[in-house]
């Protein structure tokens, strides 16, 4: 298993001013950095790739869809804009040598419906994701559906729902990305959900139930790592913990979850590395 960290641990928006984070992640002895694609206009692919190559670090990317890029929208123009955005994200990922692109890429992040979603919403989402998945396959990139909690999406809250959407898309490059923070709210079993993702699991966000330091809360880490061991998981896993709010994607961190960011990262990496060693996933 490859261990990395999300750039949001330090920054609220990616730009050339944050390129030094690549060196910082490498200095932590991690395998990759997860770079947000919320602002493609500040994403300088040649500069990022050059910096990654200089320190021998891998990369993945992630994002969320907003109200003007919602591929489940009633508005065809919004759906079309969302498709274009997803394809641009795939190209950006390939341009830096990234192995995967994932996130809340199936409907608007933080949106409500007057009733439960219908099959139409899943079909619109699948139709919107299929071109990006096809392009990803051509460019050697994998795409991950990330289930998130009911307060952040109405469409995909569980691994089972991610599988439903993945089957509708029916593209080899379409995979699944799990997140322990959201699983703590929506899944009945961390172990069962991880096993359900199975060979389609390509990315894992490792977060405590309160977004604090992994190992200090209620997440069933042994259940997770037992499943990863049984799957012989060789994919990516990133710490995604925060101590502050971000400007372009609210993290809802209203209190101090760790003494400081460095402590959160140091203790979090130490805990996850110990679990990797315990379960033979180094």
Task: Kindly describe this structure.
By secondary structure, the chain is α/β, with parallel strands linked by helices. It has one domain: TIM Barrel (Alpha-Beta Barrel). It has an eight-stranded parallel beta barrel with strand order 1-2-3-4-5-6-7-8, surrounded by six helices. Helix 1 packs parallel to helix 2, helix 3 packs parallel to helix 4 and helix 4 packs across helix 5. It starts with a strand and ends with a helix. The model has no long low-confidence stretch (mean pLDDT 94).
Could you write a compact summary of the structure shown?
The protein is α/β, with parallel strands linked by helices and 282 residues long. The protein has one domain: Alpha-Beta Barrel (TIM Barrel). 41% of the residues lie in helices and 17% in strands.
Offer a few descriptive terms.
alpha/beta; TIM Barrel; 8 strands; 9 helices; eight-stranded parallel β-barrel; 282 residues
> In sequence order, what are the helices and strands, one letter per element?
EHEHEHEHEHEHHEHEH
User: For the record, what CATH class applies?
Assistant: Alpha Beta
Average pLDDT: 94
Oligomer: single chain
Tell me the Rg in angstroms. Answer: 17 Å
Give the SSE map:
Elements: E1 2-6, H1 20-27, E2 32-36, H2 45-55, E3 58-65, H3 76-95, E4 100-108, H4 119-139, E5 142-145, H5 159-169, E6 174-179, H6 180-186, H7 190-197, E7 201-206, H8 221-231, E8 236-239, H9 261-278
Parallel strand pairs: 1-2, 1-8, 2-3, 3-4, 4-5, 5-6, 6-7, 7-8
Helix pairs in contact: 1-2, 3-4, 4-5, 7-8
